[in-house]
Q: What sequence folds into this?
């Protein structure tokens, strides 16, 4: 019986790194991480649906104009070309969250959208 427990313990211990490696974009305490690219004048990489809970957005500006990213009441600093920012928010299940660039005129040109927490 003791040998069985040791084998089970060793087997589970060996599988833990494999399971962690297969987890999609996990970053700490269950937060999902999404890589977003701001270009003139749209965001690339923003999913339409995400799991409810903590979500971290890593934004990089690849456009020629400065951009920011606003979602769930939080906004990044204004990012010049090549600059990056990270934004972590908590998303509630069943809610739709609009996102946009708050630079005047940019959302009108297409830098906006909506994601749903499932």
A:
């Amino acid at each position: 019986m003791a040998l069985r427990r040791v084998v089970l313990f060793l087997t589970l211990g060996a599988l833990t790194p494999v399971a962690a490696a297969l987890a999609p974009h996990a970053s700490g305490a269950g937060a999902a991480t999404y890589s977003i690219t701001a270009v003139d004048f749209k965001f690339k990489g923003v999913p339409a649906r995400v799991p409810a809970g903590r979500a971290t957005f890593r934004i990089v500006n690849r456009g020629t104009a400065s951009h920011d990213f606003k979602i769930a009441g939080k906004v990044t600093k204004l990012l010049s070309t090549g600059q990056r920012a990270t934004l972590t928010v908590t998303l509630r299940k069943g809610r739709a969250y609009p996102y946009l660039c708050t630079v005047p005129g940019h959302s009108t040109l297409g830098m906006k959208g909506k994601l749903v927490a499932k």
Notes: The longest helix spans residues 2-22. The helical segments are 2-22. The radius of gyration is 19 Å.
